[in-house]
Design brief:
The protein is mainly beta. The protein folds into 3 domains: 185 residues, Immunoglobulin-like (Sandwich); 139 residues, Immunoglobulin-like (Sandwich); 124 residues, Immunoglobulin-like (Sandwich), CATH 2.60.40.10. Strands 13, 14, 16, 17, 18 and 21 form a 6-stranded antiparallel beta sheet that branches. Strands 22, 24, 25, 28 and 31 form a 5-stranded mixed beta sheet that branches. Strands 4-3-6-8 form a 4-stranded antiparallel beta sheet, with no helix packed on it. It is elongated and about 135 Å long.
């Protein structure tokens, strides 16, 4: 009894040095195969070869509720579980004597392993267990974890564990052979907003946008959400493509699942007309059921209706609970510019030509415009101003070919080359067969400013020389007529003489 009493006192004094954290299912061989004692059985009263079980419950975020004791008992944790975390567990000291138990008050996780390491990885529910652990001091190391996870510190735990409850002077110690630990992991990760290339390069083309949320567990301290939504206010030059929004859940392992709207997983409020705000409000019951590290992706399209300054910016905001100011990832932009040409007579620079039709093409791989007939050009399907045929831009009465909007690039890309080709010449002029390279930059062009070399000249159609009508022609016809009359008169005279 004296030995047992001394043992309990020393363990009660040193219990604060044992840090409880999570691990996974591992089997350790014990010298004998005695059954696991019931909780409350001191190690000195346990049968030889008795073993215990270590449970590790892995959640994201820190539990700040002081009412939840860290004493090896089971707890209810309102944080998302964390899968894919590997723990290595090994014995660092056998606990046989009072001196062995007393030494753990100053022990640190730097102690070397004296038996082989066993590893386990947390499944979707975040919980693993290590059964058949003999009496001793064990080191638990979080050896591997998913990207964006901040690992918990190494820790020591004893089997059995002297669990304390109550407050002084009524503190009681209960020996636990089932020991539950709850190591806390931080989740890191930022949201992201991206913009892609349009499906065609002229005004009216659909531009794809994508929003990636922060991983669950990286915000709100991992606590359950009461409200969660993402909003995206659109520039007035953008019009939402009806029905284009797709919401996808991305599991921590990367598996993607397209979600259903209508409140099952989320509720979508689309913008109407030009501009407006896209809103995706998530069903928090569904969100709170997902493991830590889960993200959402929202993909949608908009058409570009005008150029303006050419830099059309867009940013989204993620709101948690009753936040007035949410989280906003980096702003992105799609860049568009106007192109203009001037059509003139090659012999008279002041004579402008109406009715010339042009098409727009992509440049070749080497950023040049191949002459017609030397290889195919990549025709773009543009949507010009109302009343014009797709990808057919016609010079007006002032000789101006207005191409109201062409895609330049995304974010920092501020110039793009295109080829323009004359497909129909002005009436009375020869078609120009040489593709012209132009460079488009964001924004519109001022009056009198043109793309590339600016002016594109046409040569008039020149036909063959035609005979002139007038005096010389009349004289020739008169002389020919007189000769015919003279010949006819001579013949009549000869016939009269013969008859006589």
């Amino acid at each position: 009894m004296k030995t047992t009493t001394m043992l309990r006192r020393r363990l009660a004094a040193g219990v604060g040095a044992l840090v409880l954290v999570s691990t996974s299912l591992v089997a350790f061989a014990s010298p004998a195969s005695a059954a696991q004692p019931t909780d409350g059985t001191p190690p000195g009263n346990a049968a030889e070869g008795s073993t215990g079980t270590l449970y590790v419950h892995k959640h994201a975020g820190a539990v700040t509720d002081p009412a939840k004791p860290n004493n090896g008992t089971t707890q209810t944790i309102d944080r998302p579980t964390l899968a894919g975390v590997r723990f290595d567990v090994c014995l660092v000291k056998k606990l046989v004597t009072d001196e062995d138990w007393a030494s753990i008050t100053t022990a640190t996780p730097t102690l070397p392993c004296i038996e082989s390491v066993t590893s386990q990885t947390t499944p979707a529910n975040g919980t693993v267990s290590f059964p058949n652990l003999g009496i001793g001091l064990y080191k638990v190391v979080e050896a591997d974890y998913p990207a964006g996870v901040t690992p918990a510190a190494d820790f020591l735990v004893s089997i059995p564990f002297p669990s304390q409850s109550g407050t002084a002077p009524a503190v009681t110690t209960t020996w636990l052979w089932d020991v539950h630990t709850y190591p806390k992991n931080g989740i890191e990760g930022e949201g992201e907003k991206t913009v892609g290339a349009p499906d065609a390069n002229g005004l009216g083309s659909a531009v794809p946008w994508s929003i990636k949320t922060r991983p669950l567990g990286s915000f709100n301290n991992g606590a359950p959400l009461t409200a969660y939504k993402v909003t995206d206010p659109l520039d007035s030059r953008l019009t939402y493509v009806s029905g284009s929004a797709v919401v996808t859940m991305v599991a921590p392992g990367g598996i993607e699942t397209e979600l259903t709207g209508g409140g099952t997983h989320y509720t979508l409020t689309p913008p109407t007309g030009a501009g407006g705000t896209l809103e995706v409000a998530f069903n928090v019951t569904y969100v709170n059921s997902l493991p830590a590290g889960t993200t959402f992706r929202i993909d949608f399209g908009t058409t570009v209706t005008s150029v303006g300054d050419g830099k059309i910016k867009n940013k989204s905001t993620e709101y948690v609970n009753d936040q007035q100011e949410g989280y906003t990832p980096d702003e992105v932009q799609t860049n568009w510019g106007q192109a203009k040409l001037l059509k003139r007579d090659v012999n008279d620079a002041t004579k402008v030509l109406a009715g010339a039709t042009f098409q727009v093409y992509n440049v070749n791989a080497n950023s040049t415009c191949a002459p017609l007939g030397t290889g195919p050009l990549n025709v773009l399907t543009n949507v010009p101003t109302t009343g014009a045929t797709a990808n057919a831009f016609v010079s007006d009465a002032n000789g101006v070919v207005n191409i109201p909007g062409l895609w330049v690039g995304s974010n920092d890309v501020l110039s793009r080359g295109y080829c323009v080709v004359e497909t129909v010449p002005p009436s009375g002029y020869v078609r120009d067969l040489t593709p012209k390279l132009i460079t488009v930059t964001p924004g519109g062009l001022a009056e009198g400013v043109y793309s590339g070399n600016g002016q594109i000249d046409n040569t008039p159609v020149n036909g063959p020389d035609l005979p002139l009508t007038g005096a010389q022609g009349t004289a020739l016809f008169t002389m020919a007529g007189l000769a015919l009359v003279a010949i006819a008169g001579g013949g009549a005279l000869v016939r009269a003489r013969r008859n006589h």
